[in-house]
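re the bet — no i am not wrong, look at it urself. input seq straight from the record:
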Amino acid sequence: MRFRETHLVGNRTHPFVTEPKMPQSTDDNSQSGNTTGGGESRIAPPHSDEHVPRDDAKVFQQLVENFGGVLRLEDLSAQETLYVGPGFETVFGHRRQTLMGAPHDRWNMVHPEDRERVVQSYVHNAERGTYDEEFRIIRGDGQTAWIRDRAFPIRDTNGRVYRLVGISEDISARKRAEERSRHHLEEVALAGQLSAMGELVACIAHQITQPLHAIANFAGACKNSLANFPDTSLKDTNRWVAEIDVQVRRADSILSQLRDAVPKRPPEHTLLNLNRLALDTVDHLELEIRNRQVRVRLNLAPQQPVVTADRVQIQQVLLNLLRNAFDAVETVSTDRRRVTLSVERFDDRVRVQVRDQGPGFGDIKSSQLFEPFFSTKQDGIGMGLAVSKSVIQAHHGQICAAWDGTHGPPFEFDLPSRSQE
């Protein structure tokens, strides 16, 4: 079984390591001809330390020139920029000289909608080493780009901050990927909302239609009974009973129209690899996983877990189960916010399971969780799992929650497997 754990929590580390400076040899006999102090001649091996540059300035220059982002050094007392890496021209689209000597000029490059937030964060957090912001910039060519900007302090021997090192990196590609994921999730959510709406209307119609039919039957019985009494004083009563029958039939007609008015997306059944669907779903949720500080572990089936199913509908079920798991672990400590998503193929079925480390549901029966309008959330309408159950059953599968009393119950569903041709 394949394992992949998505860690999206924890402290970020700086991409720099300070190493002690190597002392230069002062031995008069140390020449470029590679001799030892005793005068014995030797040939240095190709990868000897004698071929490593000893000039820290040159090492630093090689480092920053090959650094993928933009490195800058600011002097706080003089309020000037001492150094700007060559990557600045690629990322910001301006010449480096634009920033030299005037560190605050770079705020003019920040998108106006982000500028105030970023400047305030820099002022309050840069010297503490906690400045870390993502924002838009207007490049020199007029294009908009996203960057992640960080800063950390350099202190003198007295602990006073006298310089700041800043690091900027272009994250436009990641932001575009996040936007694509967000758009995809919105499409899946819309399909889920339509399914929930249809399920909701069908459930309400079913619940209301039954008493309406009973009312109609009793109204008919009253009408037949009153017809045997010639007393004219019951004339109005006959008319009222007839009106009850008319209004009941009108209500039933309205419910039928409401059912027909709900948009229905016809299912598109294709061969679907549930390993790939699990990976794609977690990738789409990456930003949400990071923001909610959850660790997601993927256990994928070694065999190809292929089913015939509607991708959008099955992904909506998976999203619903994962987000329920994220909600369940919000109340526990960060180190316990773990969710495991497993895919397993056995015999002629494929099983997908979502397990969390949450507190569980107490004395609530697992069967109740799938009933319409039942929810353990204060603001929930209780349709998510009901819709998921309908979707899985429509695919000739089963869905359930099996709680062993330790942590949150593992929710799992299985579908008939298909050979991948």
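see?? Residues 137 and 145 are 5 Å apart (CA to CA). told u. also The longest strand covers residues 144-155. so pay up
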